[in-house]
Design brief:
- The complex is a heterotrimer of chains A (350), B (316) and C (483).
- Chain B has 316 residues and is mainly α.
- Helices cover 73% and strands 0% of the residues of chain B.
- In chain C, strand 10 and strand 11 form a beta hairpin.
- The radius of gyration of chain C is 24 Å and the shape is globular.
- In chain C, the strands form 4 sheets. In chain C, strands 5-6-7-3-8-9 form a 6-stranded mixed beta sheet, sandwiched between helices. A 6-stranded mixed beta sheet of chain C has the order 14-15-16-12-17-18, with helices on both faces.
- The chains are: A mainly alpha (350), B mainly alpha (316), C alpha/beta (483).
- Chains in contact: A-B, A-C, B-C.
Chain lengths: 350, 316, 483
């Protein structure tokens, strides 16, 4: 694929997401007006809270983009293979729990070692959280949609158990863990809350992009998701192995997102650590048409919406949950438009 | 009920009151799940997997809470059903009308409901979410039947929605196995091409099944508010719509078995009260996890034994 | 006497294709009317218009003398028109009774249904167990079910779209006897077929379509196979491609005592022993689901044996039957579709897209595939060009063993000739070719050597066995008089 061609394709691919976002914001504005709020105030606050200042960008929007990038990158892997992992939220928490446990015990370790242990532990835990759905799908063809989804609720209950039990802070007062050791914390960009997770996430996205566009493996993965029988019979793609790698890989990246959130942002585990990153990342990955480079833009967009939502609630008194309506509208616009162009994301669901 | 058990003097009475309390709680907890699962079963038999059922339940819950406050609990239930239908109609427009991927459309609709209900709720009751006092549905005992030992009170001493479960299971069973329309609906779920060749308007049938299913899910959400919790809270359905999907699998897509499978889930949740009454020191989170793990077990255990509709999730 | 159906000057276009052009067709009561034509001649389009599935753009259409063209299959049924589709229209998961109720618009409530089913079966003369699942019926029983479904209700017109294409001769006979009985009682039947013999033997009246136009019609008694073939094909019927018998080279594949479990709907293989030699074309004759799929897929490396062995001593390639789901990914470009097969099992890591695109363009050009270019998607190609592309792609690496499943499926006459030409060229260059076709005549015309599969077991016809003898092997597994 030569360069000008891929630029042209990316530009053409960008028109729809922009339109989808505009529709979403328009509906938000109409909704705000009809609910008696000032749409101008609301959208203004949304902007100030997301891109309005260096502080908003570096400490609100970008840190929120990091988990979306990790999870979304993983989802492009699963969705391309035709596997609907919608359990990223649970895998995120599994990774966060493992990272917390390792981070608390990493007191005397050198920082690089502690960070690697935290990251590896989080990835393993995330993948482990997806082992049963993967086995059910690969061995018996049970839809992973339901099984991955159900494990989200198990994970949230388990976090609640952990922060009131084994991982509860030493004084046993608050439902949260002790802070992790300093050696297990990701370095911050001076004066901001932006941590080293961001460049790392970008590297993963670029690597996945190369995998998808330049390698036989990535091509065969997409073939499996788009035309599973042809991929298996004409292409001799070992479907079970590819599916397992895609599902477990996506879960590992979701787990890593949880680990990075602990190690770079919260430094401790508590309930509601994720404001629904696992679901927002689905929208981000689909809006990016499963392209990891496009994901850089869409993650930023959704992170901005989340960051701006807080400002909207503070400054304009508008419930922050209203932005999930925008996310839903964007998702619907993209999926409908894709269908009309005759190419569904991720191929068949079964 | 749990309290009675703890107070009882004689072991035998203790056991009976404890088990009838357990049975009663099981049915009560199972009712909203059963309604949503029956709605989902109807949609799935027509070939549509609707993950938006969670959104239908949640909006049904909020609509029921608002309407019950204004006009009384019965109207609340009806409004809940209408709200569930409205969300299902959005799903049907996207997944059937525009033929978008059903999984993504369902996820989007559930997200939409989460945002909408949150915004409306906070708009209506302030960001703190003042505790709502909502008139709830009274228990309607069926004289005679409610005297059956242990299960009488549980099955025939409940509020209106439990009887609606019996009614909808019977009606869905009748439609699917005794009517031309139901046969066409099953054909749409098994083999849409064949159904169309025989003149079944597949997409219309699917849309009707999905929207009717949404009404049942909305009813389920309303039941949660009006006959179980007594108030509305953000995200209060907590994935019950997704559990309903697992219940459909466990029930093998057959209406009566789906209702029974829901009861099993109700029992798992009610165990929580029972164990507390028995003074076990098991953390409550285990009971929170149990229905989800049970659903996962149902999925795994059903492997190879039950056939889903052949065209489930397949667009025409 | 009022005609049951009277269509005049019917035209219908699909995109760039004029499917029907001023076609006329009349069906009288008591008549069995054969509609002949190649694939794509417009037979199915005409019948789908009669059945209300599509509407004509121009023309007049009378049913029982009334201008009431049906707008849906349901309306057609209300007008007494029933159709047996080319592909089975029964729902596999449904019982026989449920399927008939679905087709007839009857209530599935057991009591009333049982009574109506009994009446229907005795009227038509076909007996099936109403409670049996359709998926477990044999092919012949499934076809019988289709006829019951079409005749349920009070159908006076029966449309049959190639009902015997997948049937053994004896079963086909039985089906057509039932149809004859139906016309004797005053109904009218339209038999769509491309088998000249069948039309001449069973029909009263024959209409031939070619490229959307009626080229011939008249009473069957006054027509001959030669005039029909001329009307169908335009010029003299092509002689079966003749080629000198191959001089087989060394053995390239050897199956011994091969047992394979059944694919969905199939019968599996039991104790099959077979050798394939370089340069020969082996035709596998079998009635559908007698193990042909399992044999070819095992040789093609997709299935594994339960016991016995299947050694392939050379590189091999499989041309799967289903072009759009198993051979090609419709939404992928030709470059991507070529790459899919070209890198099957390869250990290479990187893709150079520019090089792949050039190679695909060269492949298309060299094999006369009509396509907009290497970037065209597979779904934009006609069926014939898709198959030409698939075969070209599979032969690109000059495999030593070529396994082709029903390679002419859905192709017209010309495209079928092309397909076998491609295979013959490969065999001439030293490959061993093994293929199966549902059409026995196609197997006989194109194979150097024919083997028969009957209920999963391999039967080798005697040297110089004729068509009838092989036909008996297909049906009974032995060459004796069929039971």
């Amino acid at each position: 694929m030569n360069l000008s061609r891929s630029i042209r394709q990316t530009a053409r691919g960008g028109a729809l997401p922009v339109a989808a976002v505009l529709v979403g914001l328009l509906i938000l504005a109409v909704g705000l007006e009809s609910a008696g709020y000032s749409a101008a105030d609301g959208l203004g606050a949304l902007w100030r809270g997301s891109f309005g200042s260096w502080y908003a960008i570096s400490s609100a929007t970008l840190p929120r983009a990091v988990p979306l990038l990790f999870i979304g990158a993983g989802l492009t892997l699963a969705f391309r293979a035709g596997a609907f992992n919608i359990g990223a939220e649970g895998q995120f928490y599994a990774g966060a729990m493992a990272a917390t446990w390792i981070g608390i015990h990493a007191g005397g370790w050198p920082a690089p070692l502690a960070l690697i242990a935290v990251g590896a532990g989080a990835m393993l835990a995330g993948a482990a959280w997806c082992v049963i759905p993967t086995m059910l799908r690969v061995r018996f063809g049970v839809l992973e949609v339901i099984s991955t989804l159900l494990l989200n609720f198990v994970a949230t209950a388990l976090v609640s158990l952990m922060v009131t039990g084994p991982l509860q802070e030493s004084r046993r007062v608050y439902p949260q863990s002790d802070p992790i050791a300093a050696s297990a914390r990701l370095p911050l960009l001076a004066g901001t809350r932006l941590h080293l997770g961001l460049p790392f996430a970008v590297v993963i996205c670029v690597a996945l992009w190369l995998l998808y566009t330049r390698t036989v493996w990535g091509f065969r993965l997409r073939a499996l998701g788009t035309g599973p029988r042809a991929a298996m019979i004409a292409g001799r793609v070992p479907a079970g192995r590819y599916l397992a790698i895609a599902l477990l890989g996506s879960a590992a990246l979701a787990g890593l997102a949880g680990g990075v959130e602990i190690s770079g942002v919260s430094y401790a585990l508590f309930q509601n650590l994720s404001p629904g990153y696992g679901f927002t990342a689905i929208a981000a990955a689909l809006l990016a048409r499963l392209n990891p480079i496009g994901l850089l833009a869409t993650s930023l967009l959704f992170a901005a919406l989340e960051a701006g939502a807080g400002a909207m609630q503070r400054d304009a008194g508008i419930p922050s949950v209203a932005v999930s309506v925008v996310e839903a509208v964007i998702l619907i616009v993209v999926v409908v438009a894709d269908r009309w162009r005759g190419r569904g994301p991720g191929g068949q669901s079964q | 009920m749990a309290g009675q058990g703890a107070r009882g003097a004689e072991p035998m009475t203790d056991f009976i009151s404890l088990s009838s309390g357990f049975a009663e709680a099981s049915v009560r907890v199972a009712t909203p799940l059963a309604l949503a699962a029956l709605g989902e079963a109807l949609a799935e038999r027509s070939g549509v997997i609707n993950l938006g059922i969670e959104g239908s339940m949640l909006s049904g819950a909020l609509a029921a809470a608002l309407a019950a406050g204004a006009w009384g609990p019965e109207w609340g239930l009806l409004t809940g059903a209408l709200a569930g239908m409205a969300l299902a109609a959005v799903f049907a427009a996207v997944a059937i009308g525009a033929r978008a991927n059903q999984i993504i459309a369902g996820t989007a609709v559930s997200l939409l409901a989460a945002g909408l209900t949150g915004a409306v709720y906070r708009r209506a009751f302030g960001s703190a979410g003042a505790a709502l006092s909502i008139p709830t549905l009274p228990a309607l005992s069926i004289p005679g039947l409610d005297r059956i030992p242990v299960v009488g009170e549980a099955l025939f001493g409940q509020a209106l929605p439990t009887y609606l479960v019996y009614l909808s299971a019977a009606v869905i069973w009748f439609i699917l196995s005794r009517t031309r329309w139901g046969l066409g609906l099953s054909a749409a779920g098994e083999s849409p091409e064949a159904a169309r060749a025989h003149g079944i308007p597949v997409r219309r049938v699917r849309a009707i099944a999905v929207i009717a299913g949404g009404a049942l899910a909305g009813l389920g959400g309303g039941t949660l508010v009006l006959a179980q919790v007594g108030t509305f809270a953000e995200q209060m359905t907590a994935g019950r719509g997704f559990i309903a999907i697992a219940i459909v699998v466990l029930g093998g897509w057959q209406p009566w078995r789906v209702a029974l499978a829901a009861l099993l889930f109700g029992a798992a949740a009610a165990l929580q009260f029972l164990f507390q009454a028995l003074g076990t020191a098991v953390p409550y989170q285990f009971f929170l996890m149990m229905p989800y793990l049970l659903a996962l077990g149902a999925l795994a255990g059903r492997v190879g034994r039950v056939r889903a509709p052949a065209a489930l999730g397949v667009d025409l | 006497m009022t005609a049951l159906l009277e269509l005049a000057a019917i035209s219908r276009r699909f995109g760039a294709v004029q499917a029907l052009h001023d076609a006329a067709f009349v069906l009288q009561p008591g008549q069995l009317h054969a509609l002949l034509g190649e694939n794509g001649a417009g037979k199915s389009t005409l019948m789908r218009i009669v059945n209300g599935m599509i509407r004509p753009e121009r023309g007049s259409f009378l049913v029982n003398g009334q201008p009431v063209a049906p707008a849906s299959p349901r309306q057609a049924r209300a007008l007494g028109i029933g159709m047996v589709h080319q592909h089975f229209s029964a729902v596999p998961a449904f019982t026989v009774g449920q399927n008939i109720a679905l087709a007839a618009g009857w209530s599935p409530a057991p009591n009333g249904l049982a009574r109506r089913l009994r009446a229907l079966m005795s009227r038509v003369g076909i007996e099936l167990d109403p409670a049996q699942r359709s998926a477990s019926l044999t092919v012949a029983q499934r076809q019988a079910l289709e006829i019951l479904m079409a005749l349920a209700g009070e159908a006076r017109v029966l449309l049959l779209d190639e009902p015997t294409a997948v049937l053994a001769a004896a079963d086909a006979d039985q089906v057509l006897t039932v149809v004859r009985e139906f016309t004797r009682q005053g109904g009218g039947a339209v038999l769509i077929t491309h088998k000249l013999e069948e039309a001449l033997r069973y029909a009263d009246q024959i209409t031939v379509l070619r490229r959307g136009k009626v080229t011939l019609h008249g009473p069957a008694a006054e027509l001959t196979a030669a005039t029909l073939a001329h009307a169908m094909l335009g010029d003299a019927p092509p002689a079966a491609a003749s080629r000198s018998p191959a001089t087989p080279g060394p053995i390239v594949a050897r199956c011994s005592n091969l047992t394979v479990s059944a694919e969905a709907g199939g019968t599996g293989l039991r104790g099959v022993t077979l050798e394939l030699r370089s340069g020969e074309i082996v035709g596998v004759a079998a009635i559908e689901d007698n193990g042909e799929r399992e044999l070819l897929r095992t040789l093609g490396g997709v299935l594994s044996p339960v016991s016995g062995s299947c050694e392939v001593l050379t590189s091999r390639t499989l041309i799967p039957e289903d072009r759009t789901t198993e051979a090609l990914i419709p939404s992928f470009s030709l470059t991507e579709n070529r790459l899919l097969a070209a890198r099957a099992g390869s250990k290479s890591v990187w893709i150079n897209w520019d090089r792949e695109r050039l190679a695909t363009g060269a492949l298309i050009a060299a094999n006369g595939v009509v396509a907009a270019g290497a970037d065209a998607t597979a779904e934009d190609l006609s069926g014939g060009n898709q198959q030409r592309f698939v075969i070209a792609r599979q032969l690109e690496s000059t495999p030593g063993l070529i396994v082709a499943e029903n390679p002419s499926r859905g192709l017209d006459f010309k495209a079928t000739l092309d397909v076998f030409e491609q295979l013959r060229t490969a065999a001439g260059a030293g490959a061993a070719v093994i293929f199966h076709s549902v059409d026995l005549d196609e197997v006989l015309a194109n194979a150097d050597r024919v083997v028969v599969l009957y209920q999963g077991q391999l039967v080798v016809p005697t040297e110089g066995a004729d068509r009838d003898e092989i036909g008996r092997l297909l049906l009974a597994g032995s060459a004796g008089p069929s039971a």
